[in-house]
Specification:
The chain is mainly α and 295 residues long. The protein has one domain. Helix content is 79%, strand content 0%. The protein is built from 13 helices and no strands. α1 packs across α5, α2 runs antiparallel to α9 and α4 crosses α9. The radius of gyration is 19 Å and the shape is globular.
Length: 295
Amino acid sequence: MKSQGVAYKYALTAIFFWSTVATAFKVSLQYLSPFELVLYASLTSTFVLSLIIFIQKKFNAVKVHIKENFKSVLLLGSINPFLYYLILFKAYDILPAQEAQAINYTWALMLAFLSVIFLKQKLTLNDIVAGIVCYFGVLIISTKGEPFSLNFSNMDGVMLALLSTVLWSMYWILNTKSKVDSIVGLFSNFLVSMPIIIIYYLFTQPIELPSLTGLLAASYVGIFEMGITFFFWLKAMQHAISTSKIANLIFISPFISLIFIYFIVGETIYPSTIVGLTTIVFGLIIQQLKLSKTK
């Protein structure tokens, strides 16, 4: 049954938890390497998603989906959670949380650009203007308010954060060809990716027992970034009478995130971050105007 009020409750819950994940990433990386965080967060998320699948009695659907679409599931699982989160966590390990989360937020714009190449969609004037505005915002943030100096605070971190937007966009582009239930598809990707993640860990990382604090932080990331929050957002969209009103709520998330970053991580929030983030959000709103007109 459609209910905008119920949709808002689910959406705001999802947005709250998504607003905490940049802080959770940074706290986790104080105790774990980026790949350890990928491993333990993915294990947690796979467990949480399995509970949802169990409650919804969809294990048979998972079995059928993996059997019939193993190659595509393997490809998607290799991107998310394996490559995407490995690159993203490395970016967070190098950059201040406020920079990494702002750059990663431009994935929606990257999705529009890559859709032109892979889905043969047309690039509109709104897309071009949004791109100029958003990436100028990235430039403001990554140069700490001196965009024309091109003096980046950490070029490697910026490139990794931008690469994460490419991987995330490719994940969703590949998903457009899948007709499977969203939760079934997501759980299948995580389930198939776990052997890859574990084997990679065994061959590339020193095997050490993580601290309890590190495990708890990774579990939080697995539950609220990779797992159940996606379920809340999906439920919001299912209940929404107007999905555009729900989708637009996501624009408040990065600003709430700055509050957590300031008080918990202890980062000084630069004025350039606020200006740059506002610029990015403005660019994304320009892009949303195109979608509204299309609808």
